[in-house]
Amino acid sequence: MAKVTRKIVKIDEDLCDGCGLCVPSCAEGAIQIVDGKARLVSEIYCDGLGACLGDCPQGAITIEERPAEGFDAAAVEGHLQELGREGGAHRHEHEETPAASHGAGGHTFSCPGARTMDLRRKAEEECVEPEATLEGKLKSELGQWPVKLYLVSPNAPYFQNAELLVAADCAPIAYAAFHSDFLRGKAIVIGCPKFDDVELYRDKLTAILRENDVRKVTVLHMEVPCCFGLVQAAKEALEASGKDIPFEDVTVTIRGEAAVAAHV
Description:
It is a single chain. With about 260 residues, the protein is α/β, with parallel strands linked by helices. Helix content is about 25%, strand content about 25%. It has helices at about 20-25, 75-85, 120-125, 170-175, 180-185, 200-210, 230-240, and strands at about 5-10, 30-35, 35-40, 60-70, 115-120, 145, 165-170, 185-190, 215-220, 245-250, 260-264. The strands form four sheets. It has a five-stranded mixed sheet. A two-stranded antiparallel ribbon has the order 1-4. The protein has a two-stranded antiparallel ribbon with strand order 2-3. Helix 7 links the parallel strand 9 and strand 10 (about 245-250). Helix 6 (about 200-210) packs parallel to helix 7 (about 230-240).
């Protein structure tokens, strides 16, 4: 296709932190998260109107005028169908778009709730006793967002110099003192090896361990057999990372009791 001089988005990968807020803002699906960074997947999908600009907290997206392939509305329609996003290329700017999955190795997502947020500083500034708030209720020890292993970016700041907690989805429900006994002071990722792609889990955990100075890995899982897939994925990721990191395996019974099974 012949190129024409027109307006088109430009993404500064040095500024981009992979939060993903720009993805649902692009009704044409021209921007996706690939290998932890927002990328323009094809010039023909970008109309150059810049609906994505205001949703980048890092200011990594701008509009430039340069030679580029022309915008192709028909190609966009086919692209959106492949992504599972229905309703045409030009949605109303406030209309939500369905989310797709996100993972390592080039997988993409379009979940507006996947914005990377480091909550640790806010918690420190509140100066509240960790056991309870002024209302006498237990205080959350969550220091980040998102927490799903599918959605986190391996480059997220909360992984650097952190203790990593890899928890099965059911464990926080079964174990009553989860926040105080296991989550406090740790970065967390959660998942379910029974319903999700364990190979993707392994690859994402490998990326997290390779790209950050993780001080310790704790896997908290249920006693049911399928849940041990999470332990195996974490062990394989640790080996693939090539790093010597302390590893703790903790099993939670369906009655909510926890026991440390092994240290590596």
